[in-house]
Amino acid sequence: MAFIFFPFSFSQAKNFSSEKKIAIADNGLNFQIKTDKTLVAEILVDLGITLNPNDHVYPALSDRASDRIIIERATQITLAADNQIQSFFTFEKTVERALSEARISLGPNDEVNYDPNAPLFSQMEINVTRVKFDTLTKNVAVPFETLNQKDDTLLWGKLKIIQTGKPGLKEQIYKIVYKDNQETKRILEKETILEKPRAEIILEGTKIVVGEPQTGIASFYRYGNKLTCASTRFSFGTALRVTNLENSKEVIVTVNDYGPFVPGRVIDLNVPAFEKIATLDAGLANVKVEKIIQ
Description:
single chain, mainly beta, Ubiquitin-like (UB roll), Resuscitation-promoting factor rpfb fold, 6-stranded mixed beta barrel, 21 strands, 7% helix
């Protein structure tokens, strides 16, 4: 609580009946009074002016007042810097001066949560963040791409690598931002290719050799998203070429189910496969089924 400390008794002071003019300067607030009081403490009590223990008064409370009384108010602030927090009273007026009083120097990149010229106020919390920059250089592998090429001399379903891929190498230079010794940001400033990657080239066989054809009716079923079929003649995993004899459209499917069981039907295609050679509205298609020999 604010108070004035009196180290003596008012009864000890001499009284002067004549009034006099005194200028009061209270931390930037200036005004003039007339008083018949003699001591500084008496005058302040009479004016209802309270002081905190850290405030300064000129002349001293126990002195006789002259023509001017000056009050300097101390401002309590909290200063956080370099992992330390200190709270103190200061007679400085700006953030910059308070930092200087606390012997806190700022580097060119350090940050303060207030403008250096901002005026101080009671219970103000000033935070200083130390900002440093560093450079990091590292080499990073560059992945190679894979190029698939069709080859009509290679059997369908066969793959042949004619050029193996090789990763490349690039140099990356980063700017690292540290705040209070903690990395907060990493900025890529430069990237240089030291060695270009070599693509992998894979040949995909498109040559189709088929066995004896089988003709009949193809139906469809709603199962799966890949090009598959059901057959009673060919084993699971067999690749078949199915051709619509009415429009010559073809689809290559893999057997993954057993059927159909209706007389005259040679194959049951799932929906995606059937739509390659006919519309679903047709329901059935007259087809030729051939086993692909690999």
